Amino acid sequence: MNIEVQEKNGRKYYYLAGNIRYGKGKWKKVRIYLGKGVIKKKQLEELANEKGKEFIKKLSEARKNTDPLIALISESHVNELDKIKKKFKKEKSKLLYPQYKNYYEHFVSLFTYNTNAIEGSTVTLRETAMILFDKIVPEGKSIKEINEVQNHKDAFDFMLNYKGDLNKPFILKAHKILTHNILWKHAGVFRDVQVYVRGAEFMPATPGNIESEFKKMMLWYRRNKKKYHAVVVAAHMHHVFESIHPFLDGNGRTGRLVLNFILRKNGFPMIDIKYADRSKYYAALGEGNKGNLKPLADLIIKYITEYEVPI
């Protein structure tokens, strides 16, 4: 911010002013009136200091009005999420290994069950835990469903141990692990055929546009991962990833891993979108296709505020 001087009819008017960018080559001027006439430099600085908080508030409001993503999360939610983040960090630091192991097995069983159930798996929560930790294969389940369970845990473990930032190689590797012995040559590579999403009105990217759309998504991430709140970044990236639908299959499970990767990297609890909430989840993604990410952000916030597992 700076002090701006305007002259009208031979008289000087002073403002505290600043610019905000709200698009490519688009700027909006924000001003707060300080006074008029002859005002000494020291007095102007004092007036600017007095109006500083008011100016920052006005600047913040202007940003929200020009950028819907900034306004996606209310100030009260931001404050609540900050408290959760601090509490989560403190709880996590106090965990003993036996507690962590217990929580880990609990969460990975739930997350694996729910994310697969959303995609149509018939493996129950109890059967999921049996496959993962007792190495017992339940009767009546296909090899594909068994592989989906084990593969998801392997991909989840890969995500937990990955030290880098979100990028294309990470996403391709996560998908390859998720679809190992299921999609074969299509595991970990972008699809070369058109796919459709059952029950959805939108059309995923054509095979010829996947690479360019994916690059746009990753460019947005690199440019905005620090600009917006982590929940906004997670919601935006998840929605865009699902709208591109870059793989032949496994897009939902990969996308939910990406969502959790962003939350975890920013110090927030990971979330497990419940199979019982699949209608709300699909509706939120549908609203995202209309340009409204608030339902998806609200759903993520809801799960974060209800977290139980500090991993």
Write the layout of secondary structure elements.
Elements: E1 2-8, E2 11-23, E3 26-36, H1 41-50, H2 52-66, H3 75-94, H4 97-118, H5 125-134, H6 143-161, H7 168-178, H8 210-224, H9 230-244, H10 251-265, H11 278-289, H12 294-305
Antiparallel strand pairs: 1-2, 2-3
Describe this structure in words.
- With 311 residues, the chain is mainly alpha-helical.
- It folds into 2 domains: 2-66, no CATH class; 70-305, Fic-like fold (Orthogonal Bundle), CATH 1.10.3290.
- Helix content is 57%, strand content 10%.
- The protein has 12 helices and 3 strands, in the order βββαααααααααααα.
- It has a 3-stranded antiparallel beta sheet, covered by helices on one side.
TL;DR?
The protein is mainly alpha-helical and 311 residues long.
- Tell me the total number of β-strands: 3
CATH architecture of the largest domain: Orthogonal Bundle
- Give the CATH superfamily of the largest domain: Fido-like domain
Task: Quote the CATH topology of the largest domain.
Answer: Fic-like fold
Overall mean pLDDT = 93
Q: Shape from CA axes?
A: elongated
CA-CA gap between termini: 41 Å
What is the N-to-C order of secondary-structure elements (H for helix, E for strand)? EEEHHHHHHHHHHHH
